[in-house]
Records
---
Amino acid sequence: NTEPAKLLLIGYLSYMLIGFALLSLPFAQATPVAALDALFIATSAVSTTGLVTVDPGTSFTFFGELVVLLLIQIGGLGYMTIGSFAVLALQDNLGKMRARTCRAAFNLPEDISPKLFLRSVVIFTLICEAIGAAILYPKFAAAGVDNPLWAAIFHAVSAFCTAGFSLFSSSLEAFRGDFTVNATISALSIFGAMGFLIIVDLWRTLMGRQRNLGFTSKVIFRLTMLFLILGTAVVMVTDPGIIALPAEERIMTAFFQVMTAATTVGFNTYPISELSMAVLLVVMFLMVIGASPAGTGGGLKTTSFAVLIGLVRSTLKGRDEVRFFKRRVRFEQLQTATASLVFYLGLMVAALFCLLLTEPALDFAALLFEALSAMGTVGLSMGATGELSPLGKVVIIVLMTAGRVGILTFGIALASRDESREEERDNELVM
Amino acid sequence: NTEPAKLLLIGYLSYMLIGFALLSLPFAQATPVAALDALFIATSAVSTTGLVTVDPGTSFTFFGELVVLLLIQIGGLGYMTIGSFAVLALQDNLGKMRARTCRAAFNLPEDISPKLFLRSVVIFTLICEAIGAAILYPKFAAAGVDNPLWAAIFHAVSAFCTAGFSLFSSSLEAFRGDFTVNATISALSIFGAMGFLIIVDLWRTLMGRQRNLGFTSKVIFRLTMLFLILGTAVVMVTDPGIIALPAEERIMTAFFQVMTAATTVGFNTYPISELSMAVLLVVMFLMVIGASPAGTGGGLKTTSFAVLIGLVRSTLKGRDEVRFFKRRVRFEQLQTATASLVFYLGLMVAALFCLLLTEPALDFAALLFEALSAMGTVGLSMGATGELSPLGKVVIIVLMTAGRVGILTFGIALASRDESREEERDNELVM
Ligand SMILES: [K+]
Ligand SMILES: [K+]
């Protein structure tokens, strides 16, 4: 059934167009912004990517920045959540169809009511963002930032929604050595990226409704921790620039750059283009894996990664079934994970081919990094974004949209209906 | 069962070590060759890759070149074929165990006797190589090549075994405009890369034992044709350097560079490093897909690619089963294809990470290209091979070995036995 996928895609496209229209208004712009750049920023915000062709901190008025922030919040929570919550507030009841779509979108277990779930999600989000902003405000004020309260709110929302949009032209590089800012942004990003499912699960465990964390939550939690710890260790010992930092900044800088890729938030405290290529490969790997399902982040998702690793291990060890963490993996899960990976790779090769044609002057590694960053809705860049030609911007816009809607959902939404149903006999493909 | 995989790996490693020992002999070397370079060349020959750290045409004596040629022939036919054929010649009968291993290695249909198959393969190979050498000889003689008969034999064997080793320091660039050389090398490479299965199938069809080509042969044949035609068209219209060539050389040059990647033979008639990055991406894509199972080429294999495309199409269209070419794909085939892809990607990321650390002075694209070329046993290079540090050479040696043994077989050979058999209850992974 391709209907829900089409609806989701159309929903996001609508928000992008509304955002584009609002950002095109003269009183949204502090300096003239080209139409394609306004569309780029709107797409980047709704998809919570954070790639920017113009500096949002100087190009937009307060109204423009507010539009960007609202687009981020809408994109981060998912337009489904927002829409459902609005309905909830009005009539205290979800339509049956809407409840079903919501259940499908969040992979909600059968015994949790969508109504309760949505309300909890929105309340939890606002509380997290408020706490984050309250911690960031004195820090930004002390650093002499313009309008520190607004900057604190903007960065807290941008972190929890894993958008990575910053009002500062060099992202958070000025706060590289500030533990409080590092910890606050990281905590918000990790909470957002781990996903609502884990939050619900944690909440149910805390409320005594279940004894242990569910299997999915365990997998997500363990993989996220593994990536963060292993990644930080690798970056700390291999990158010459980070090795040269003062001891106390070294671990924090390594952790932040790994965290920003793994959660797909996309802020940075160190200039990305100055990282060594080996570390950039680690960052690219993390950007491909991405965050967790039903979270605000992008990428292939940690659960897909878990299934694929389980598949390889089981195949190499000659098991007669695919297992992971001692559990059997269902065929449909394998199919979803594999199809996502293959479609991701296909879209990546096609997009990269287009970018190499439209941007002959740019470096291969920078373009690959840019495409992976867009598809994973990460927003880190080796510096290609500002140099893109109009056609290159269009390619990145498509990738950010696909990344936000979900790689596979994007494909399903674009796929034609299945028309050939007949099957032939000689079906033995020898590999 | 990991035994056959281990045997295969040990078999190839034995041939590599024998080759290394022979190439280390003083009368094999025309100019001094370091031990690591001798091992590199031996591995490159047995794996039919063709990457070289020293120029084989000037570094080795005739004896050394003969050793390289024998290693190529052994690697191309597979040590199993050679070994089985030796037994056949001695006792006109295959041991039961050997017959089973051979059947497994070539995915031989039940109704074809391994004995007949092996004999046909070797005879067919020698006939093809002899015809190829006979056509190349007058061309090489006319071009004033040293010892043209030897050069003709060497290049014919190197082409059919998709090894791509050349006695000329600039591969076949001197023959870019020569139709006969282009056609002969291409035909030999395509025959070798399509694989013995297709040859058996064609032979049975021609002998009237079956009405049509089998499904596997059809898939391999159609995909190979598709890649060659589509690839040539794309390269012809996008690469500025090839567009600038005289009209008659343009199509031939585009075709040859696509053919060399798709068959994984690795000769070139145009300097690879002068191709545009967009075309290099096409070449990389073809090198990843690779040739066909049971052929002499490397890569993921066209059949795996077919299965994965079938999986994506079926998933996007919401089919309840995975189909391709209107046939249902079996679960084990999906598992093999997916595990190969994921293991390939994992090994690639690990190898690239090592190369980026050991070769900080080399370009990211050149190293990625080099690693893909080694893993696919292709042998094309953007120029990194000669610049590699000793550790970098070791990484490439490992990749060439994995590529020849087969990505998945390599993993199975290295995997430990499966020890945990218990399974837990809570096995619902929500994606
Ligand atoms: K982001
Ligand atoms: K080769």
---
Amino acid sequence: MSVRNAFYAQSGGVTAVINASACGVLETARQYPDKIGKVFAGRNGILGALQEELIDTSLESIDVIAGLRHTPGGAFGSCRYKLSTPENKPAEYQRLIEIFKAHNIGYFFYNGGGDSMDTAHKVSLYSQKMGYPITCIGIPKTVDNDLPATDNCPGFGSVAKYIATSVKEASLDIESMHETSTKVFIMEVMGRHAGWITAAAALAMDHENDPPHMLLFPEIDFCREMFLARVEQTVEDHGYCVIVASEGTHYGDGTFLSASRSTDAFGHVQLGGTAPILARMIKDSLGYKYHWAVVDYLQRAARHMASAVDVEQAYAVGVAAVEYAMQGKNGIMPTIVRGEGTEYTWSIGEAPLEMVANVEMKMPRHFISEDGLHITEECRRYLEPLIMGEDYPPFKNGVPVHTRLNRACVEKKLPPFNV
Amino acid sequence: MSVRNAFYAQSGGVTAVINASACGVLETARQYPDKIGKVFAGRNGILGALQEELIDTSLESIDVIAGLRHTPGGAFGSCRYKLSTPENKPAEYQRLIEIFKAHNIGYFFYNGGGDSMDTAHKVSLYSQKMGYPITCIGIPKTVDNDLPATDNCPGFGSVAKYIATSVKEASLDIESMHETSTKVFIMEVMGRHAGWITAAAALAMDHENDPPHMLLFPEIDFCREMFLARVEQTVEDHGYCVIVASEGTHYGDGTFLSASRSTDAFGHVQLGGTAPILARMIKDSLGYKYHWAVVDYLQRAARHMASAVDVEQAYAVGVAAVEYAMQGKNGIMPTIVRGEGTEYTWSIGEAPLEMVANVEMKMPRHFISEDGLHITEECRRYLEPLIMGEDYPPFKNGVPVHTRLNRACVEKKLPPFNV
């Protein structure tokens, strides 16, 4: 078998540990010099392939690559760009194959969510049809934890740990202040369609009545009356109320709370923020003093509070992607498989890309309590192992150290392409 | 000298390390059994004294007290309640003295900001006048870093480290995504009148042009045109723009941005949030895709990202407060004194309470760059040592362990008092 180069790209919203997967890919690929020549990484994801901006990772030192393990964000650049189908837009697929041919690329490792698995699958099929077969392996990544066929998704455990830790800490603050000041605290988290991150906030609880007292899932229609009644009851019972709300909290008709019909004095629709909308609702109806937080990008970038299990798994799926390719496998994605038994164990499995593509795994109903406002014990048992262990980055001058790539691109061989 | 009891109370907004100061007070007081009997802690701050809710800390174990060092929030409860003057409301001061007499309290340790130092000072004077002299020692605490007479305030270093770390991490996220998605990220931080926390965000920078690209201080009047021009220029130069804004960002006439005249469809004034206001301004004028975060309580509760220097100093001012009292000193506050020389050193000094009371130390103009939108090198040299070192809490089940006090109160001896 001749030596072929590989192409690696990061796709969609980044996570605290997507670079750990990159690290796994690059370190493992270097162990197969008889099969894999260079690994090129797409500058800004798949755009890098279309625009022939191929970062030559062979120019990056071993230390810099090792540092990817503790560096959040997407070190090569990511993008929100979904390829169409080969039928609708064959030019894009043709271009990919041309680029791969021009740079002797035989392996395509695509690190992303459901859309990306779909793209990898289509490239695999199309490349065979075009007589230039590419080995396509997907590498799972998403803070939303919504990919099928895998027990959990690399990226989720770390945001889960960050959210649980942050809510636990902030709840002590509200508890301290509630006698004369803040009675309600609302924290808005990511997960527009799936409530996994919201659910993870419950891991802050040591005991049954500990905060957070209420969780608002995108899987459950929001009911204003029920919500306000529960806030009032909680403040009466405990003196204060801590709420964690998904950014995707919505009414029964599907309207997001954050897209409420409120407009400002100039007629502009008010932009975003489920938490401030809930805060106003409480203030108007119950009069409680409130605070709210929207952590946004911080939650998925918080490598300083990464889950050790998550870092390990993110690295492992990167390693497995290359190993599978070396074994001649194609059109698959490494998965996380949970072991049987009470003690948490995990191993790497595999799933065909077509099984993973474009399926969104929401929270199952039995993971959500009957009233729709909290999680069940079963859900807790599922979530808890995923946030285990701390994996602190190195610090310098009081802040985390992050690796910096050269990102030098190889010389272009083809004419430009308009995306 | 006879054995007297002591009273300790936490006041105002809490911090990640105010309990470390409590730990210093309680551990040190136990070393003087011939002078200090029990330490009573006010349940919910000074309200605990007025309402005779005195937590008997002698019932708390050594381990539990040691655990205060890594527990955020105010473990005894805090409050926002400012005593009036003895002239305006003598009943409150009389009540305090009665409580202190009834429980043989001879020492008053008040852990708070400028208002609390003022109260401690007034209690000291009033108690002498009433013939029941109390030794009053203030213990500095504020995330805002705005107390005079001390080089810095316990509580600030940890929020500074958290903000610098968070901005550094989130900036990698925006950098990864900016090619096809988010161009502007705005993070809102605390510090309504003083811009120290905003300034600390600059510690995220390794190099001159690194994010955050712009800081909005409460010390500098906000200019919409200049702001938008700078955002546009930064996006042109770097592809994206990271902004850190104080919650107290205001126009030249003093109006906070967060109190903008916008109202919703029902005529309600829109509630809070400097960051979303700035985001809308950018969207409307420049059309850039944005994200924003408001960390609120999370920043001052983030004990998981505490500065080791800050924890050490918070503990040390608690220790010093008791030591000073044992030396017969009165009406003072322990301070942090910065050593001379290039290497950072610090020691504990003291300042009279009347010098500290009700003075708000804003950022000096020479700490802010000429254009008003960043910090100077001198400011960086001041800030950097304060975030040095990590001091991680213990973790269990993936989240930080926090100490839980019994908070058992001593039996009341006096009739109720209405506050």
